[in-house]
Records
---
Amino acid sequence: MIFCIEDEDSIRDLMIYTLNGAGFEAKGFADGGELFEALQQEKPRLIMLDIMLPGEDGISILKKLRAREDTAGIPVMMATAKGTEYDKVMGLDLGADDYLVKPFGMMEMVSRIRAVLRRTEAGHKNEAKLLCVGGLELNPETYTVFVNGERVQLTLKEHKLLRIFMENPKRVFTRDQLLEIVWGIEYAGETRTVDVHIATLRTKLGQCGGYIETVRGVGYRMGGEL
Ligand code: CA
């Protein structure tokens, strides 16, 4: 999850759209108030922070983030305008992890975010690794799936479903187990929900769709070329 704090709606929307397309989950906020409210619920992997904001500016927000124990470790990428604002920011050692100078390209933003994440998360032990089965590749970190090198767009539920199978090759899961793992125990749905999602997932996976095998009378498992 990436948080984007930017008061211009069109830029914020574009950032989120681009990040989603690059496989990141992202949420946008128009000011510091909204950001700090959201941080009570969830801690993102990275915060994109504009400096010029209505009310509290990005510099003050960054200082607060760094001062709080629960947010001090979250990487922050600052967005600054050219000129005096940029000079001022560079003059102050604010402890941001990186800076982007406005106007910046969306692809540049994504690659700089990836670089910061690689650097800051490199030491983390819980780093999820790439899962591969035959021509199928799933990256649990970026939520991307490739079938024979071609990117496939999955919904979050489909992604979770596929990940469970790929993490446990050959293991048979009952529909009830899948409902519990993917939808959560509080979900009062029917096991038919699982069948519908499996069918869609198989279609989306094309040539690799057959890897998800039906085990008659029991459930499903990941087969394929292991
Ligand atoms: Ca702004």
---
Amino acid sequence: MSRIFVTRKIPEDGINLLQEAGHEVTISTKEGVLTKEELIAELGKESYDAVLCLLTDTIDGEVFDATDAKIFANYAVGYDNIDLEAAKERGVTVTNTPGVLTETVAEYAFSLMLAVAKRIPEADRFTRAGKYDGWAPELLLGSDLKGKTLGILGAGRIGYAMAEKAYRGLGMNIIYNDIKKNEHFENDLAATYKEDIEELFAEADIVSVHVPLLPATKHLVNGVRLAMMKKTAYLINTSRGPVVDEKALVEALKTGQIAGAGLDVYEDEPALAAGLSDLDNVTLTPHIASASVETRGKMSLIAAQNIVAFLNGETPENVVS
Ligand code: GLV
Ligand code: GLV
């Protein structure tokens, strides 16, 4: 039997799996996110063999040093919350939960694109406010997407699934940027590679962000690039907030440099950049792109499977370190 610490309540699928494998599971009883100090204190209370952590936990050398646990299983596909260098130095294995959330996040990015282009949240606010006083020819005009160009930043699994839905479902043209060409984009989606990222910003009617957060992708979407976009274009971000310079985005939205944006992630979550929530041409949601009942259950199962494999002396399927 091993002891496992879970930093916050998650869907029970994974917890059941850990218990059925004979392990003792302790789940943080705090309502919200543990601060780093609280996490360190929790890890010091028992001798744990594994930690199941969330993207909202800051996991660095000090946290690793607070426990004997040699596996940290992140309940997310992104793992920018974990210091991999510090993990490596200490021989700690880090895992994530890729794959299961690909379609869910892509469906969400696709929904945000439609919501923004068709101005659905804005129209809902308008109607609820009692402002609808009769059909009008030019009321809340939105944009069509068929034949428009979708620019995908980051040609990974989620970027591909988003592009596929837009290409097959809406008849959009696909352009994409990544550090290298991706033959699936070219062969399956008739997509065009834009090695020069700025060409993508200039040509796209929608830019959708699907890169992980790395030093090289911080502020990949900056003021200069936003200014290169069409005035009729939209930005969609379901990846990580710091990939977009949020202050610059507020300016671009305010001054009409771009037409609108759909955001599920923020630079300094859960805080929003000043002025962002005053704007009507932006749809804001609270980091829920992977939040379907099905997927959040599967993510908890996968995080648990990674831990069980590790504790059995096997290599977990989703090692990122
Ligand atoms: C969610 O943001 C994830 O990385 O899984
Ligand atoms: C995540 O699963 C990605 O590769 O986009």
